[in-house]
Amino acid sequence: MRYVIIGAGAVGGVIGGRLAGSGHEVVLVARGAHFEALRDHGLRLRVPEGELTHRLPVVDGPAALGELHPDDVLVLAVKTQDSVAALQTWGPAPVAGGGTAAERLPLFCAQNGVEGQRIALRLFRRVYGVCVWLPSTYVEPGVVSAAGSPLTGILHLGRHPHGTDETARLVAADLEKSHFEAPVVPDVARWQYAKLLSNLGNALEAVTGPVSDEDALALFRRVRAEGEAVLDAAGIAYASTEEQQAVRGDKVTLVPLDGAPRGGGSSWQSLTRGTGTIEADYLNGEIALLGRLHGVPTPLNELLQHLADTFARERRAAGSMPVAELMRLADGAVVNTR
Known about the structure:
eight-stranded mixed β-sheet, single chain, 19% strand, 44% helix, four-stranded mixed β-sheet, alpha/beta
């Protein structure tokens, strides 16, 4: 199988680099300065064993590849807000022997949240969810890093909306030869909703910086509690914290990387790169949406969604809001819902 990584940033670049390192054929899809750096200098993958350079085919769209292969696997690793454009670009791509990518090829959504695979299923017949537990960083064109050891990450795989099949098992086997653990599960959404609860802190980190002092941690606990209340009201199952910890154990322990400090998660990285967009609408915004559908107030998630969107749109510096100011805004948001 050949892996076409649509969005070779933090998650996609690390998955693609690790697959390439274990001998698999990989094509990277990128744009702008990142595309140029990958094309000219290769993918620089910083991991605990050092910096690895992979010279891989790099394209900015399907036209550069001609007909896709019937055994290609597409990995969608763009931010959710970029999914529609990517899917509309790759869905009509022709496949050798007839048909299109949307009709014939499997699409694995390696993204935060749950909306990307819903969007994909409108266009693609064979959609797979991936619960991405992969601490990784992309802030410099051509360079991605992942500090996890002994494993780079844990990626639960399954068909969307549910089930498993041979394709999922084959992809999992390739990933498990490439520094990942990749459980194939019939209920991948249960793991993704659990990860969504953790990702509710992404906007908090992006706005105020590392969630480390007691005030920030206390606020995150309140934000997560809103999320849990919403999922419970909606009847949506999610893996417990204890179940997640039992699976992860100490398999993905972060170690210092030379020249690659980890400043923050995916939303923090979006602000640091000045992309102008952020995925809060599909993380905190998912909780806000479900809260409105099921009559559960979500003032803190709505506040974080609004602030993250504002920071991205105005290209404000990541972590530039004092925690005390955010706490004041949070208290006001809660009072206004009573």
